Fold each of these.
Amino acid sequence: MRIQTIELSSLGQFIEAVTPDAPDPRTGRRRDSGIYRGVGHVEHRLLTSLDRLGGEDPPHTKRELESHILRNFIRYSRPFVDRREHSDWEMLVTAQHHGLPTRLLDWTYSPLVAAHFATVDAPGGDRVVWRLDWQRMHHAFGLRALAFQTADIEQLSGDAASPLTPWSLFERDPSAAPFACMLEPPSIDARIVAQSAVFTLCSDNSRAFDAFLAQHGLLDALTRFLIPADAVPRLRDQLDLVTIDERRLFPDLDGVAARMRRYYS
């Protein structure tokens, strides 16, 4: 089984490629059900920030520090976050959103947002947008057809008396049944909303996400959209033309400054 690769030369071709051929019989709409992740280098694997913490050659070298990292984030974030209003899962999402290394992997519902992150950096080279059929993944692991949220992800344990928490996941017996799921974060700030952000959560933090899917016969849940280096400038300009840029996706002064910096470079 191999990952399907589709080469792109324009934004229009990308939109056409992700538009379903026929309307959904339930809704009558042509809406894609996948989620997307843009990366700026063709060789980059689907590594989480925790995977990359000790370097990428090899990755996963500091995965045993996962609980210590989150515990200290919770400790030092107290002046900025009221713990009485946030569950441990919400704290994990908040930590990931602010750059803490976690096992969460960033995705978006929007193929155009993913294309932005794949093409925004100036250095040359081919780029990639990954698409994940998360419903196919859920089905393979016996999970419901709906995305999980921080309010209900504890149900993944299958035991109401012992709900799944970040801490129980970190200490999970390696022989326990594996899973990977899609997690919709709460709208903790405007960036989450503007970027249509979602995450994948995997029970295994010892291998890249694509390697985990391969191990479970799920490579066909991934599609790899390849943007050759000579097509990147055109696709980048087309994204700017339809206002998929830093100012829209980072609706604050950082986003305004980043857009101006790139526009005038």
Note: The beta strands are 4-7, 35-39, 105-108, 127-132, 148-149, 180-184, 197-202, 222-227.
Amino acid sequence: MRQASAIPTTLFLIVAVIGLWPAYLAYSALGAASGAVVSVLVLICALLAGAATKIASQWERVVVLRLGRFRALQGPGLFFIVPIVDTVPYWIDIRVITSSFKAEKTLTKDTVPVDVDAVLFWRVVDPQKAALDVEDYSSAIAWASQTALRDVIGKTMLADMLEGREKISRELGRIIDERSKPWGVNVISVELKDVLIPATLEDAMSMQAQAERERQARIILGDSERQVAEKFQEAARTYTDDPTAFHLRAMNMLYEGLKQNSTIVIVPSTAVETMNLGGLMGTTALGLELTKAREQKAREHKPREHRPAVVRPAA
């Protein structure tokens, strides 16, 4: 809201106070009637001086009409008009203005009802056109923005709207700028705040996204198994060409199994013979020796119990 300046009121008071002296002299020399006439004239001059003085802020531009016709564009700062003859119908704010607008229950190109909230950043670049070429430029901008938003939504698929907000904002800003340029208004940017879709559609899209993630997980798992199978095939070819490496690998697997807490390991006799471990008895003896070594190691690391000393009386 525009704040009134105190300078016109101050000027009115100064002229009125200065005019009291001629009124007093006329009253003293010519009588009460003359003093009253002079007082009225002084009051009229003070009112005209206050009405002729105007102050515009740095961000304001003032449209001055003389007898209904455009005379000048004043401001910022101090300027004067001719009272009664000149009028000031508009004080135009040239700062950046933000306006919010929305489109409710608007169908997209794939017939999905959506609610879209947006913000428009704009400013007046030609105050003369904004004052004279359109009745209310603020309302005109608001309606132009809302209709342009509905047009863009009707031409856009829902998926494109959810993923390409920046592109839609640029297109919407271009359309609004073309419509508002004859009014002396420049659109800086348009930002989409929110796109609301029906709750049932949100659930369906959530299920679709979850199914897509599960599909990707299964694909990754299958690809991993394929790679593991390929590595196993390469290892098998390596062991086929090098029996010594195969025997070492088999012995390592048996050793790893015997290192665990379990004390019973079932090894096929054919595998024992293949590894050349000296028969089944040799394998059993190896397992027993490993078990004893593990138990001995556990006893060494077990903390000793501290028993209280017993003191016997002397005989």
Note: Residues 306-315 have pLDDT under 50 and may be disordered.
Amino acid sequence: MKKILIVLGGTSKERKVSLDSGRACVRAIKTLGYKYEIFDPAKSDLIDLKKHKPDIIFNSLHGKDGEDGNIQSYFEYFKIPYTHSGVISSMNCMDKIISKNIFIKNKLSTPRYFYIHKTNYNKKLLKKILKSKKINCPIVIKPSNEGSSIGVKICKKNSDLIKFSDQLFKSYNTLIYEKFIGGQEIQVAVMMGKAIGAIELRPKRKFYDYKAKYLKSSKTTHVMPAGISKKKYLEVLKLAERAHKVLKCRGVSRCDFKFQNKKFYLLEINTQPGMTNLSLVPEIAKYFGITFNGLIKKIIQDASVNR
């Protein structure tokens, strides 16, 4: 029986989510009968990964260092087969500026945007860019390389833009300014290149933020399958498959869309979707008859190097 090393926790701002995801995966891996050990990069040096002599690494990390190609480069260096996307794909998907450029190049609609680096930022420049790009409020500001909606701010007026820019530049080097798209929140799970389903989220909060994603108390309504026409449903599945392909994702990914005026806008693609009891990929999979344990088994079977 193969030995799985489950990598979880880590040092990113998504540590708690990673621990929740990792524990759920540990339970499944245990039930599936694999031998396993747990590795937390916050408590052990990455150079020690090989000491565990795993046959496969199950990557349950989220956010910085776990989802951006960094830890994947260690897996590749040690030549240990691992789950989810590879180095370049993870890096490109985590960096929203790079991924947006790839979306645009491949004719995948995404909200209009621009970005500013901290060293160039001032109020005069911000106003100048807004005018030249013809982007008006509401505008979404977000860090260029965070996940789980951490640091996302919706600005309804220009004074919000300046206030939140000043706030966020204290913690981040590069911010994306994106035209806010209303409409329906649609997310699609893709597994081994094939879209398995689309779910709609109806948050009670202003938008599908960190609390809406991970707290039961936020009471986000999950509509499965998404409340759109059959034709549009099939269209969004194809768009997600295309995004997965052009960004060279592997294993499981999740594409986040907004649907407004009969048009889909791709916001981002996640290479390490959550695996908590409130997570969307397991929920979509379950609707189509794939149990949580079955999902984890498929992810493990797909593990490899040179991803």
Note: The first strand starts at residue 3 and ends at 7.
